[in-house]
């Protein structure tokens, strides 16, 4: 027997339609790449998204066609999220921080027919255009006054001209909720980037789930500023969750420096934000230098890389801002876990509470996970046993877009994340390492992440990375690679002494190397493949 409920398909356009109808006067504020602050409402965003939809149809875009973006977090990029997906096409957000050859590969692999780009990326786009033959038209996301007088870009036009030729008299079409709506490629740190193709169903369900109190807890009482870029895993779902809940949305554009971010936090009265650890480390230094305090910011979510406990503690004790740890990946849309405490944790002392919250957290509804050993068998959730982390759920990838290699699914349908983790009796998952980064020393596994987090707690350390280097006796031993804080000195001997008594003796780094800066991926993660190349000849006694 089937239920007697309406069969309304889940579609991305229903989110912006809902926001326009029930939160129509709520603001969307963005800093423009060409300068200035832009303000309008969800009702305006819905109208302009419909104008964009009609413009795309006139350009011949059809169901399933890919429309690329090279853009910052702005109201125009927000409109593309809805205007493209709303007609059944695929919004392909491209990470401009990738290497040019990766960008060429991604655009050609996706076969983007149109490409929208911000003014700051004009020089980059002019280099890409000759080697991206599938792109029929390039659209500058600005007004006509910003169009270059001489450009070799085929069919170049301005975004505002495209929209200006259309009306908002348009009804969003209805189609199967499993229709593809957006496409995002992985960073490709060890291989060519791989495309993750999200559906309307997966995206709407993800937006619902991350809005729950034990996830991102997004509500109409919030002012949300996603610092994580919209070209990276849909800005962790916040451009969908904010309008779904009626929260004011603040988009920082290209101004990712601490001074620009702080200005928006204060002037727009932001209550909640999201970003990677490197953003918050820089912002903490900025706040300390000027003895600044936040007026309204009370919580932020950190993901993309492990958040150092020292960073969480400093934000709470010095700035009154709670950092919530979360975990996810491009293949999980991205949110998989969030680090909220349970009721029986209420009486914990601050140190024990922090120890729990520095884990990556508990699964949000819709995601299931387990850890397995080398034999593929499940391991206990005792907080001690660690193994390969597997996940599944309605917004977890089952295969890569146009993939010619086997996917990452197990025979029984679990996705192999590539992370090594523990899960404790309360369900808190803790990433101990990437499977390719764990250090195997004398039969023991050493977590590079735990050592990096401890190194960051030293007052003279700005950033740290740990890799395994050859050892004749132990096979591998940890090498600590450190960037000193400006104006501060610390020796290798002092840093090695800093670890004593804080970790097991066999986990202590054997040596320290100092560098001016560490290499990062396009999404802000430490690029350990590059570090291994740079220290390929290094060995410890």
Automatic annotation (TrEMBL):
Family the UniProt entry places it in: Belongs to the ATP-dependent AMP-binding enzyme family.
Pfam families: AMP-binding, AMP-binding_C
Protein name: Long-chain-fatty-acid--CoA ligase
Domain AMP-binding enzyme C-terminal positions: 451-525
Signal sequence extent: none
SUPFAM superfamilies, alphabetized: Acetyl-CoA synthetase-like
Highest taxon in the source lineage: Bacteria
All residue ranges annotated as the AMP-dependent synthetase/ligase domain in the record: 18-401
GO molecular function, one term: ligase activity
Keywords tagged on the record: Fatty acid metabolism, Ligase, Lipid metabolism
Classification via Gene3D superfamilies: 3.30.300.30, N-terminal domain of ligase-like
